[in-house]
Amino acid sequence: MSKRETYSIEIAGVKRELPLFEIKPGLRIAILNILGDTELVQACAKGLANQIKNLAYDVIVTAEAKSIPLAHALSVETKKPYIVLRKMYKPYMGEALQAETLSITTGQPQMLILDEKDRELITGKNVLIVDDVISTGSTLQGMRMILDKAGASVAGEAAILTEGDRAQWMHIYSLGHLPLFTE
What we know:
Elements: E1 6-11, E2 14-24, E3 27-30, H1 38-51, E4 59-63, H2 68-78, E5 82-85, E6 97-102, E7 109-114, H3 116-122, E8 126-134, H4 138-149, E9 153-163, E10 173-174, E11 177-178, E12 181-182
Parallel strand pairs: 4-5, 4-8, 8-9, 9-10, 9-11
Antiparallel strand pairs: 1-2, 2-3, 3-12, 6-7
Helix pairs in contact: 1-2
């Protein structure tokens, strides 16, 4: 197996080497995968909690799956509940709300689903949207659509990292920025 090229980054005082993956000809992105990286997740939760300490919100919302540990750790830090928008409908979800988004990492459409029980937690509430990396904004758009359908207001948006056009993400609470790697 050949050695994969990486991008060095320090996030919330923690250094990591992010592997570069080609997502289409001539375009590579650095992949942040926080699943199982407790040290990084805890540091990021503390860093983001500090950035949003003056933000008025009631509930944290994230999309399945890689950002779930961050939402959980941020929930512990801020003592605010969190909910997860799922990618597949299950019968126990009842009268769920749905929105479609396009994933940059797979290039495929994906569904985001708000469980019926979670609708009650966010209706009429101010919500903080949380993601691991915000790149194209398609997941954000899908989350906003569901929250709007549920009657929730977006109080703010936060991510460990933004990626791509930095100016587009100036309103995002984040701990850093990733460049796009073009050839």
